[in-house]
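[stage:ingest] chain + small molecule (FE2/S2 (inorganic) cluster)
[stage:ingest] validated
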Amino acid sequence: MSPATAHVTFFPEGKSVEVAVGTHLSRAAALAGAFIDSPCGGRGACGKCRVQANGALSELTAAERNKLTMEDLDEGWRLACQATVIGDTKVKVPFGSLQIVLSGIQQQGKLAPGIRKVFLKLPEPTVEDQRADVERLRAALGAGARVSLDAARDLGHVLRAADFAVTAVLAGDECFAVEPGDTRTALYGIAFDIGTTTVVGVMLDLNTGEQVAVASALNGQAAHGADVISRINFAMSGPENLAELQRAVWETINGVIAQILRQSGVLRERIYELVAVGNTTMSHLLLGINPASLALAPYVPVNGEARVERADRLSAAINPRGPVYALPNIACFVGSDTVGVIMATRVHDGDRVRLAIDIGTNGEIVLGSRRRLLACSTAAGPAFEGAEITFGMRATDGAIEKVWIEDDVKVQTISKGRPRGICGSGLIDAVAEMLRLGLLDQSGRLIAQDDACQALPRALCDRLVQTERGYAFVLATVGKQQVYLTQQDVRKLQLAKGAISAGIAILMKELGVGYDDIAEVLLAGAFGSYVNPASSRAIGLVPAFPLSRLISVGNAASVGARLALLSTEARGEAEEIAARVEHVELSSRPDFQDIFVESMFFPPPAVRLG
Ligand code: FES
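[stage:predict] done
[stage:export] tokens:
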């Protein structure tokens, strides 16, 4: 007897799926391609996978009773990682799509892609010219050319159907496809940045180097945790889980490709190559390599080198014979996305020492010049991405993204929605402003309300309140709902920013440079694009440089992938970079703990104000 099933539909997108009774809502969402934020990986610990469900669901679990208020329950809120499906259910997922950084700094490279097309008008066979078709094609392509078995299989038919006027498609010296007629103008590839949270694809015309279309999606692996450690743990608990993570990321990539095809009107078969960068865990999962060793001392990757694999062997929905090129990784938590950042910013070949910072759950930091290049990764924790903070949330609709304080607190939310919580940029702004006004001291302690009332406007001191989560500062109130920052939240931020600034300090120490020796600080990724540099400096997340030396470089990892797509020379450079970068393992440094503890303090006012 087949198991009973139920229909689950996710709104606002209206995505539906049929699942076996007993399936968790989070799993159903993953199968339907709907995104539900699951920072704790479904342990019931974070309470961030809240959805409003209407239908037949399991009884409340202890975790749900703990995380949801009576009011929440009356309104139909459930935790997607806890509630299982019993019958047909409609689910409202509260947040819209994430803010994703699609653009990056411009970087011109030489146009010499790995794929090329050659149009040929071959001589037709005659009684005098009895060469085989493959031989005829190879002779026309020139010395060293090879013809793959796949191309040979098509060749007889294509040549005769097209009167021997064909386009050969080559990867290096190998012709892997022949197309009837002259198709040289249709030559495309896609560069992917595979993030733990988001996946961004950019389609380029390989004849001109121009960008044709860009699309993004949330990584379908999210149901198995927000950070790489949760994903690695999931992969380690069974071969089927590793397969599930690989399937989920390729499903996401193929969804992005489908969007790109719709936007551009280009045929799937005309996309001949896919180039990918990602952190080391994503690079492993993309290729179906078990990432277990990344979570176990002494923390080494299974695969560091660049990899080329046929598209159909990885389920990439491009021309099935085209190659997928994955850039090399540097170390356990410094992946090919950092190689991409280096390529895009050219930190590796300038005379001046520069610092590049890419902050997500992990912060990757690169410091150096053409003489010497160092990199490290710091476990900043997910505070900047909204997890672990009482009202933290990702950068989606309703997240407070900017905070400034005049006589009272002013906030700006994403999509101008009702404030639901606070994302990384809002959190950094809020703390910077609270420091400026003395609501927080240098140690991160929230000022007592009595003291605040003596020194600050009434409206501000009234915002210091006791809540069920402890002493807090209220940022916004809508109806009965408040969004506040607790003392504990400030401590979490201090841990996160301490990890990043300690990483920077150790790289500086290792390279033997001071602040004055660093010409520029390049802020990459969403952090660099959305976070106010002055606020980052005020809380000591980045060193106290003049603001003119803090430069946002957008999605630099994606720019690196684009460079590699457009030029085999750039791929050679990527491989050299990965081999050349000296990885500094922070956990093995005896001075890390002291520097980290010191870095958790906020800078004194003179430094903050620059
Ligand atoms: S509580 Fe469900 S993912 Fe954390």
